[in-house]
Amino acid sequence: MSIAGKLGVAGAAEEAHLLGLSAIQIFAKSPRSWKTRSLKAGEVEGFRARKENLGGLPTVIHASYLVNLAAEGELWEKSVFSLADDLAKAQMLGIEYVVVHPGSGPAEKARIGALKARELAGLGRNGPWLLLENTAGGGEKLGANLHTLAELVEGTSLGVCFDTCHAFAAGYNLAEALEALEQTVGLQRVPVIHLNDSVGERGSQIDHHANLMEGKIGEELMDFVLDPRLKDKIFIMETPRGTLEDAHNLRILRGWLGLT
């Protein structure tokens, strides 16, 4: 959901209501800039009120695409600060989850960066849950291998966000990926699913999302969504936006769930 407009974050909750959604994801600032965004007067109260009126409306903040928690020097410092800013905003807004790509470089550096961002945001045990997202792979990008992702969060308060397009592009069959998640990370640490079809073929390492049933994953997605182990998870579609696209994707998903 977009936070553009005079209502800001509260406007995203308003749009969710109009679309009949039960969960949303937002960017708390531009995803392709280091510039932070201050919350406007009344924005926090407006969002919290709408969220409550919509039955809680579980919400996810997606961190900036520029963040690289495994980087060195100034880039690492900027990344940690940017992520800490998102976590602090989530805390103020009563948002439950913040999702971030681990980055490219040493796994231990990414793990330290994630934990440092939580510390800078001043989060306690009851603060928003920071989730590391699996990736499509390529180069030194972390998170394409689910075993590596499990090692990143092991022994920490961090969780995992699982993206279907990224897993497919990394070479996984979704049924096999779910088994791997359960055996390595543990599904109790995977509260959020990004439900996306893939423009690229399996194993292509192409991070390009498609509308449901219009990409290369197809029926595999439906079987994944209907797996009973995922019935309590929060599903977020990062599919192309637009009136027709939204209607198509919601119709497909609601049809799978028997809600139409």
From TrEMBL:
Residues 14-246 form the Xylose isomerase-like TIM barrel domain. Its EC number is 3.1.21.2. Its cofactor is Zn(2+). InterPro entries: AP_endonuc_2, AP_endonuc_F2_Zn_BS, Xyl_isomerase-like_sf, Xyl_isomerase-like_TIM-brl. GO terms for molecular function: deoxyribonuclease IV (phage-T4-induced) activity. PROSITE patterns: AP_NUCLEASE_F2_2 (PS00730), AP_NUCLEASE_F2_3 (PS00731), AP_NUCLEASE_F2_4 (PS51432). Keywords: DNA damage, DNA repair, Endonuclease, Hydrolase, Metal-binding, Nuclease, Zinc. It comes from the Bacteria. SUPFAM superfamilies: Xylose isomerase-like. It is an enzyme of class 3 (hydrolase). NCBIfam families: nfo. Belongs to the AP endonuclease 2 family. This is Endonuclease 4. It comes from Meiothermus hypogaeus.
